[in-house]
Amino acid sequence: MQESTEKLVKEGKMLPLMEEFYTIQGEGYHKGTAAYFVRIGGCDVGCHWCDVKESWNADLHPPTATDIIIKNAVNYSDVVVVTGGEPLTWDMTELTKGLKSKGAKTHIETSGAYPLTGQWDWICLSPKKVKLPNKEIYREAHELKCIVYNKSDFDFAEQQAAQVSEDCVLYLQPEWSVRDKVIPLIVDYVMKNPKWKVSLQTHKYLNIP
C-alpha cells in the first residue's frame, strides 16, 4: 500500500472493501428487510468459528474511495449495513457522514473491540470473549447479539447484557456449524429468560448472501 493510500485509509477516506451487495438482512432486529451491505476487510478478533475468515487480512482487500462506496450503496437502498471483518478497525466518520448526507440510515454490526467512530442509526453489538468491547459502546448499542457455541456462552451473554442500556434488544444466536445442537438449548433458555429473543441466520436458510 503506497504511503498516500495509507494516509487516506487512516483518515477513513478510503476503506479496504471486501464486498458490497444488496440483499435481505438475515439476522437480529431488522431481519427480513432489504438493505445494502458493505463488508470491510480487516479483523484481529479471530473467532475460531468465523464464517468470513477471508475478511481478516485487510491487505487482501483493495482500498476503495469512500465516496465510491457511498455512491454504490445509495443507488440500491436507503438502509446501509456496515459489517466485516471488524469495521471499527477503521475510522467510520467519513463513510457515515457521506451516507447520512444522502439520506441513508446507517447500521453497523461490530464486536465493539475498537473505539466507536461514525454516526449510527442502529448499532448491533456482537461481543466476543477473545477481545471484549470498549466500555463506551455498551450504552450506545441498540441490539446485543450473542453467539452461542456452547453452554458457557449463556453466562457470557448475561455478563454482556448487564452492561447495555435497558432499551437494548437482547438476542441469542446459534453458531451455524453447531445449530442443531445449540438451538434446543437456546429455545429452553429464552423460555426461562424471556428478556432474550432468538436470532437465526435466516439468510442461510433462504440461500442468499
TrEMBL record:
For the ligand (substrate), the binding residues are: 24-26, 39, 83, 209
Kindly name one Pfam family recorded for this protein.
Answer: Radical_SAM
Report the function annotation for this chain. Catalyzes the complex heterocyclic radical-mediated conversion of 6-carboxy-5,6,7,8-tetrahydropterin (CPH4) to 7-carboxy-7-deazaguanine (CDG), a step common to the biosynthetic pathways of all 7-deazapurine-containing compounds.
- Swiss-Prot/TrEMBL cofactor(s): [4Fe-4S] cluster; Mg(2+); S-adenosyl-L-methionine
Q: What is this protein called?
A: 7-carboxy-7-deazaguanine synthase
Q: Which reaction does it catalyse?
A: 6-carboxy-5,6,7,8-tetrahydropterin + H(+) = 7-carboxy-7-carbaguanine + NH4(+)
Known EC number: 4.3.99.3
Q: What organism does the record attribute this protein to?
A: Aquimarina rubra
Q: Which UniProt keywords apply?
A: 4Fe-4S, Iron, Iron-sulfur, Lyase, Magnesium, Metal-binding, Queuosine biosynthesis, S-adenosyl-L-methionine
Identify the metabolic or biological route this protein is part of.
Purine metabolism; 7-cyano-7-deazaguanine biosynthesis
The family line of this record is: Belongs to the radical SAM superfamily. 7-carboxy-7-deazaguanine synthase family.
The highest taxon in the source lineage is: Bacteria
Q: How is the cofactor bound?
A: Binds 1 [4Fe-4S] cluster. The cluster is coordinated with 3 cysteines and an exchangeable S-adenosyl-L-methionine.
- Every copy of the Radical SAM core domain together lies at 40-114
Residues holding [4Fe-4S] cluster: 43, 47, 50
